[in-house]
Amino acid sequence: MAIFLWLLYLFNVGKIITMETKLLEGQKAIELGAELIKAGEVVVFPTETVYGLGADAFNVDAVKKIYLAKGRPSDNPLIVHIYSKDQIKDLVSYISDDAKLLIDTFMPGPITIIMPKAPSIPKEVTGGLDTVGIRMPSHKVANAFLRACNCPIAAPSANVSTHISPTNAEDVYEDMQGRVPLIIQGGPSDVGIESTIVDMTQSIPTILRPGGITQEMIANVLGACESFKGKVTIAKAPGMKYKHYAPSCTMVIANSFESMIQEYDRVRNEGMNPIIIARDDVIKKLTGQRYIDVGLDADETMRNIFASMHEGQRIADYIICQDFGQDGKNASVMNRVNKAAGGVRV
Ligand code: TXA
Ligand code: MG
Fold first, then answer.
1. CATH number at residue 274
2. Residue 345 domain-assigned (yes or no)
3. SS3 of residue 81 by DSSP
4. What residues pair up with 345 in beta bridges, in sequence order?
5. Pocket test for ligand 1, best of 135, 197, 242 (most atoms within 8 A of CB)
6. Could you tell me the CATH number of the domain that includes residue 215?
7. Do 185 and 269 share a domain, yes or no?
8. Is residue 167 lining ligand 1, measured as CB closer than 6 Å?
9. Helix (H, G, I), strand (E, B) or coil at 21
10. Is residue 59 domain-shared with residue 168, that is, in the same domain?
11. Are 309 and 200 contained in the same domain?
12. Does the chain have fewer CB atoms within 10 Å around its N or its C terminus?
C-alpha cells in the first residue's frame, strides 16, 4: 500500500512539473484565464498586493489543484476574491456594522476581512474553519479577470509553499513554471506585500497579518483594533504556524550600519557573495559593497521588498537587510523581513 501511494505521489508530482505554462497579457489572457477557471483549472493573476493563484471557490476539485500546485498543507485557509461588493452577501452568514464600515472604507484595496462563512463555501477553501476571508483587489487586471470568471475566486499568493511571495509575473514564472497552465501579466504589484488580514469575528477587531493598511488606519475608522499576539494552535494567518517567505539563501537583519558592514566583510572573507538590501539613505553611505536599493520611504520599501529578495537570491548567496524600524507601514515590511530572516539579526 505504501509503495502504491508513493508511486501515485511521484506520478502527480511528475504531472505538475511538466505542464506548459503560458505567460500572456491583455484581454486575450483574461478571456483564456476565465475559460480555464470555468474548466476547473488554476490561473495566476496579478493584484495590487502580490500575484494570486486562483480557482473557482465553489469547485472543490479545482481548489485542491491550488494546494497541489503550491505544495501547500491543506489546513491553511484560502482568501476568497471578489470583483463586486454585491458578492459578499452570498459568501458570509453575517456582516457586523463594523465589518460594513471596513468594507465601505477600504474595499477595493489591500485588506482581507474575516467574517462568519456562508454554509455553501466548501471546507476545502476555509481549511475547515467556520469563517472566511474576503478580499476585493483594486488592481484593474484583477478586477477584469474576476469579473470575467463571474464566480468567487479562492487564491493564495502565487508562490511555491515557503518561497517568497511574487510581485511581478517574471518572479511567478521562475517559481511556478510547469505547475500552472497560465500566468496573466499585470506588471509589478503596487503595494508589494500581502493584504492586511482583519478578523472581524473577535470582540475587538484583530489584525492577523499586518499589511498596507495599518492598525492605526483601522483603529481610526473603528475606534479600536488589536494585533494578534496569542500562541497559535490553529494557524489563523500564514506564517503564524508554518515558515514562510524564505529566500533560497541565508538572510539576516542588521542591527546597525556598522554591523551591516562588519557582517558583509565577514561573509566575504569566508568566500561568499553577499548583498545588502537597504533604503536610499543607507545605500548612499556604502563604499563599494553590492546592494539592492528598495527606495526612499516605507511605501517604496513595501513595493520593492519581495522583488529585492527574489533578486538577492538570484545574484547573491547571502542577504543582509537593513532594519527599517517599526513606524507605521515599516512594521508591516519588517513582519515579512523577520520571517524571511527567520528572526536572525547581526
Ligand atoms: O494580498 C493577499 O492577501 C494575497 C493576494 C493574492 O490576494 N493573498 C494571500 O494569500 O496572501 P495567502 O494564502 O498567501 O495568505 C492568506 C492567509 C491564509 O494563509 C490564512 O492563514 C489567512 O489568510 N486566512 C484565510 N482565511 C482565513 C480565515 N477564515 N481565518 C483566519 N485566517 C484566514
Ligand atoms: Mg502566501
1. 3.40.50.11030
2. no
3. strand
4. 253
5. 197
6. 3.90.870.10
7. no
8. no
9. coil
10. yes
11. no
12. N
pLDDT at residue number 237: 53
219 domain residue, yes or no: yes
Does the beta carbon of 99 sit less than 6 angstroms from any atom of ligand 1? no
Q: What is the pLDDT of residues 64-104, one digit of tens each?
A: 999 999 987 777 899 999 999 999 999 999 999 999 999 99
Beta strands in the chain (DSSP E): 22-24, 43-45, 52-56, 79-81, 111-116, 131-135, 153-155, 182-184, 196-199, 206-209, 226-227, 250-254, 274-278, 291-293, 318-322
Please state the atom number of ligand 1 nearest to the C-alpha of residue 53: 6
Cis? peptide before 156, omega within 30° of 0? no
126 touches ligand 1 (CB under 6 Å): yes
Q: What is the pLDDT of residues 266-316, one digit of tens each?
A: 999 999 999 999 999 999 999 999 999 999 999 999 999 999 999 999 999
Please identify, by atom number, the ligand 1 atom nearest to the C-alpha of residue 235. Answer: 21
Residue 271 belongs to a domain: yes
Instruction: Verify that 217 and 298 share a domain, yes or no.
Output: no
pLDDT above 70: residue 138: yes
Identify whether residues 100 and 44 lie together within a single domain.
Answer: yes
The residue range of the domain holding 209 is: 2-227
Find out whether the beta carbon of 215 lies less than 6 Å from any atom of ligand 1. Answer: no
Do the domain assignments include residue 236? no
Q: Are residues 162 and 208 in the same domain?
A: yes
Q: Which residues contact 90 (CB under 8 A, 6 or more apart)?
A: 118, 120, 152
Average pLDDT of span 122-148: 97
Q: Whose CA is nearest to atom 30 of ligand 1?
A: 236
50 CB under 6 A from ligand 1? yes
Query: If DSSP codes are grouped into helix, strand and coil, which group holds residue 51?
Result: coil
Residues 288 and 205 in one domain: no
Q: Are strands 182-184 and 153-155 parallel, antiparallel or unpaired?
A: unpaired
Q: Which of 78, 79, 162, 183 to mutate to test the pocket of ligand 1 (most atoms within 8 A of CB)?
A: 79
Q: How far is the CA of 196 from the centre of ligand 2 (A)?
A: 12
Q: What's the residue count for the chain? A: 346
Compute the C-alpha angle 201/206/211, nearest 5°: 125
129 CA: nearest ligand 1 atom = 29
